[in-house]
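Action item from last meeting closed. Structure (247 res):
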């Protein structure tokens, strides 16, 4: 999600994830299995797996749990066949929403996603309707408690594509998906620890919402994110910081 306050968005997501840590772990394990199954168990040779391992460590998952999931995927165990699906829809205020899922039952997943949209008074869209508004990028977020000049210099030296200074004082480092981990690790070696980082579908344009509509959009996004088969939810909603107070 994009917004006036990147830091408010990060805090909201962290609080939501802490409240359902068991479900978050289940989703990450599923990603680890799929990544290892499709590209092999060695993160040095499998960039997708490396990104998911970084996510798992960021969520405080134990290394032995990560290793077991990777081994499970590499072993091609029965019952670990998941389809990767992306659903597109329009949320409150006409915002564009992408829902990335991993599922072993397509009918169940589409029914649950459609129900979440319908319950919010919104609807699913046809494939391609909103996907063109997004581009996959590595995204690394720093709070305002960091030296801007140092961050900019080190980020560009590490291979970042762009650095954005947001209204709330937070910083957003953008990279290509392939360079995400390399840039993040390079910054960490310089003592610059990010508040959050992921490979995400970022919107090219944003939909500005009033506070009430933004709160409705956040409720829909949270409902979609809470579905068992959902891995990621992306939106082009421009979220005012005040909207989080209405949740």
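Sequence:
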């Amino acid at each position: 999600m994009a917004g006036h306050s990147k830091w408010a968005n990060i805090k909201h997501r962290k609080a939501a994830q802490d409240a359902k840590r068991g479900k978050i772990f289940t989703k990450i394990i599923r990603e680890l299995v799929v990544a290892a199954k499709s590209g092999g168990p060695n993160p040095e040779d499998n960039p997708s797996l490396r990104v998911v391992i970084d996510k798992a460590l960021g969520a405080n998952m134990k290394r032995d749990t990560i290793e077991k999931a990777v081994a499970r995927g590499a072993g091609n165990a029965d019952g670990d066949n998941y389809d990767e699906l992306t659903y597109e829809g329009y949320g409150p205020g006409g915002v564009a929403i992408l829902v990335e899922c991993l599922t072993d039952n397509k009918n169940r997943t589409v029914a649950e996603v459609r129900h979440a949209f319908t319950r919010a008074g919104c609807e699913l869209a046809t494939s391609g309707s909103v996907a063109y508004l997004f581009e996959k990028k590595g995204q690394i977020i720093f709070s305002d408690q960091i030296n801007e000049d140092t961050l900019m210099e080190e980020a560009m030296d590490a291979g970042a594509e762009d650095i954005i200074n947001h209204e709330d004082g937070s910083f957003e480092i953008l990279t290509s998906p392939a360079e995400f981990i390399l840039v993040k690790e390079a910054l960490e070696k310089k003592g610059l620890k990010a508040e959050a980082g992921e490979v995400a579908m970022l919107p090219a344009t944003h939909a500005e919402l009033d506070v009430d509509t933004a709160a409705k959009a956040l409720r829909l996004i949270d409902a979609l994110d809470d579905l068992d088969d959902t891995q990621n939810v992306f939106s082009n909603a421009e979220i005012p910081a005040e909207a989080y107070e209405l949740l």
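Note appended to the action item: The chain has a mean pLDDT of 89.
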